[in-house]
Every structure is written in C-alpha cells, then in structure tokens.
Amino acid sequence: MSLVEKTVEILRNKLKVINDSKISDDIFPDSVKKAVEALEKCLGSEDKKRIKKCTKEELVSLHHSLGRFIRNTFGLWGSNEKLLNDCKKSHPDDASMVIIEHLWKKLNGKL
Questions:
Q1: Helix crossing, 3-14 with 32-42: angle to 10°?
Q2: Cβ distance 90 to 29 under 8 Å?
Q3: Of 17, 51, 73, 111, which one is least surrounded by beta carbons within 10 A?
Q4: Whole-number Å distance between alpha carbons of 19 and 4
Q5: Please, which residues bridge with residue 18 across strands?
Q6: Residues 20-71 pLDDT 10s
C-alpha cells in the first residue's frame, strides 16, 4: 500500500466514512474553512509535514488521492452546494484543489 493510499485509509477511518466513501449530509463541511479544519483534525502530523513541504505547483499531485477523498467524503459530487459555492467553483475537481491549497496555506502560516 502506497503512502497516499494509507493516508486516505486513515482519513476515511477518522472521519467515520459510511457507505461508499460518503458521510451523512448533516455533517458535511459547508465552507472551505470548515473543510480545512476537518482535514487538520484527521491528518497525521507526518501527512501535514509532507503537505506543508510541497510547493504550490506540487499540490496538483494530491488531486487523485487527497483530492478524491475530499470530493467523495465532503459531498462535492452530490448535494454539498454550499461548499462548492464557498470554493467559488462549479466543478468538484476545482473545488477540491481550492481546499487543498487553503490547507497548504494554513499549514504554512499564509492564511
């Protein structure tokens, strides 16, 4: 199992993901700030260090791992219009990258 796969597995367990990588609608984060806070709570210190060390350009490498986790778990493919709107994006792929970038900025003291 790769490091990215292990990280996603840990995130799923910590967020108590139910039924096909989704959590119930009433606990979806409805803002970028809340999504970042949720990720900070469930990411391990080593994962946060790795994300923090990335350059902004390298964040795209998280699209298929952490990005997919965000899209599936936070309801970006489904009913979470509030989070999509707060990201100011209409497509889940773009919205998940906004969240990843905000997480990276927060970890680097840029927010």
A1: 110
A2: no
A3: 111
A4: 21
A5: 22
A6: 444 445 578 999 999 999 999 888 899 999 999 999 999 999 999 999 999 9
Range of the domain at 57: 3-107
CA dihedral 71, 34, 53, 88 (to 10 degrees): 60
Count of domains forming the chain: 1
User: Can you give the pTM of this predicted structure?
Assistant: 0.79
Provide the 8-state DSSP code for 58. Answer: G
Tokens 């350059």, located at residue: 55
At 36, list the tokens. 């970042």
Q: Is the pLDDT of residue 102 over 90?
A: yes
For residue 22, report the phi and psi dihedrals to the nearest 5 degrees: -130, 145
Tell me the residue length of the chain.
111
